[in-house]
Amino acid sequence: MSRRLPMPDEMSHAMLIAVLMHHGGSMDLPAEAFASEATGTADGAFHAVEMRPQPDGTMRLSVVLRPAGDEEGVEFRG
Q: How high is the mean pLDDT of the chain?
């Protein structure tokens, strides 16, 4: 059986769970954290997430602008 790459929604979900578990399972956020400007762009598109290994062994999770186009997927950059 070949292993497939995670879908973008699966990767976003895994990142969310990792952040919450690292903070004891829950976090308090202001209601503004869920404003449309924070969770998606004005046209309804969502931002992309990025995972970048750091030299100290940690992983930096970032929200970045979504690439142009309607393609979805996981992209590995060298």
A: 78
